[in-house]
Write a structure and sequence with these properties.
Largest sheet: 7 strands, mixed
Number of helices: 11
Oligomer: single chain
CATH class of the largest domain: Alpha Beta
Number of domains: 3
Strand order of the largest sheet: 1-2-7-6-5-3-4
CATH topology of the largest domain: BirA Bifunctional Protein, domain 2
Structural class: alpha+beta
Helix content: 25-40%
CATH superfamily of the largest domain: Bira Bifunctional Protein, Domain 2
């Protein structure tokens, strides 16, 4: 089965002290992908948030990324961190001086200068990652590089929720922190009584986004585009993972696009394309990739079953022609 994807925008309530842009009742938008542990799903989630900020005209926000490991390597790092904090406990801030052992990772996220000084000398989590987590994180960073999404690796980025595994990320600026972020939460659904299923997503507070817009002098978010049927589904059998770039390029051209994950077969991807309701399937094999071509197959509409090869640099324009016809 293809992964489940959802987005939401809704009022939320938080149990913490209100701060600038952080109210008891606030409004949050977010996306979730459930059912795949493919690192390209992490990249897709991050790229969606990056595209949102770009569409709003926000230019000062910076992306920080980290990996928290998983159940096989995170406990070992926790023990290393506990040993470090035990020898520096009296140097921590007043809030953490007497409760650092409850959740030592929270010390890394503390912004007070005392805790930051202690964290600077702490062992790095990236050095404790198991091989699987190290490979996953490397592929996430590689995907961001391929999409030219700038980022900073931050060993202290743990975020405030304890269910994150592997990838964590957050956008912020010198003026306002925590404008939006998220990560992978592979054990959360099972912890809530559901099945063992992987997940990755982000949440972004609308009030925080508005504060960032004020800070950057952005006053209009432009037109709101309502949800619509998919224009295209990218089917990639090239072995080069080119679906990442093609999906990104087509979305940048204003098309609604989806793709498959987990290295599925061509047959399985085409079935997923048909089930998705997309107007067109964009197929890329090894030969097409070498020739700079994409094979497009119209799945529905008056020109259903039409199939042709298109130069990749002309793909978006050709899809716009097809999707605007009856």
């Amino acid at each position: 089965m293809p992964p489940f994807k959802a987005w939401y925008a809704a009022p939320m309530f938080r149990y913490e002290r209100p701060q600038a842009g952080r109210f008891r009742q606030h409004h949050q938008l977010g996306v979730e992908i459930l059912g795949t542990d493919d690192p390209m799903a992490d990249v897709e989630v991050i790229s969606l948030l990056a595209a949102l900020y770009a569409d709003l005209g926000l230019s000062s926000l910076r992306l920080r990324v980290n990996s928290l490991g998983d159940k096989s390597c995170a406990p070992g790092y926790r023990e290393q961190l506990l040993a470090h904090l035990e020898s520096h406990g009296d140097e921590l801030c007043d809030e953490h001086r007497y409760k650092w052992a409850v959740n030592p990772l929270r010390i890394l996220d503390c912004k007070r200068p005392e805790c930051r000084k202690v964290s600077a000398g702490a062992p790095r989590l990236r050095d404790a990652l198991c091989e699987d987590c190290r490979r996953h994180f490397a592929e996430v960073l590689g995907g961001l590089d391929r999409l030219a999404i700038g980022y900073e690796q931050d060993d202290c980025l743990v975020r405030g929720l304890d269910y994150y595994t592997r990838t964590t990320f957050e956008y912020g600026s010198d003026v306002i922190e925590g404008v939006g972020g998220g990560g992978r939460y592979d054990g959360l659904v099972a912890a809530l009584g559901g099945p063992e299923v992987s997940g990755v997503g982000f949440g972004a507070g609308i009030e925080r986004i508005l504060l960032a817009c004020d800070a950057d002098g952005v006053l209009s978010a432009g037109e709101l585009r309502l949800s619509r049927a998919l224009d295209a589904f990218v089917v990639d059998s090239s072995g080069a993972g080119i679906a990442l770039e093609i999906s990104h390029e087509l979305r940048a051209a204003g098309l609604a696009v989806d793709r498959a994950f987990d290295g599925r077969s061509m047959k399985a991807q085409l079935k997923a394309a048909d089930r998705s309701g997309a107007r067109v399937a964009c197929m890329v094999g090894a030969d097409d990739l070498a020739d700079g071509l994409v094979t497009i197959r119209v799945l529905r509409g008056s020109d259903a079953h039409l199939q042709e090869k298109v130069a990749r640099d002309g793909l978006a324009a050709r899809l716009c022609q097809i999707t605007r016809s009856p």
